[in-house]
Amino acid sequence: MAKKLYRSKEQKIIGGVCAGLGNYLDADISLVRLIFVGLALLTALFPMVIFYIIAWIIIPVEELPEKSK
Length: 69
Hints:
By secondary structure, this protein is mainly alpha-helical.
């Protein structure tokens, strides 16, 4: 079964993009967020913000199983 990239619903801070990437890459989510912020600071912030907004729009939200009562 192939892995699919989804935005996280439970571990999101803004849009869940970094949490979804961390889950997809089997990496620590905090590390993915730190790398994202570091790259944003190195690229003068604007390109990474545009990347995040585009990823937020394109990557679907994960489907969580409904909890039974």
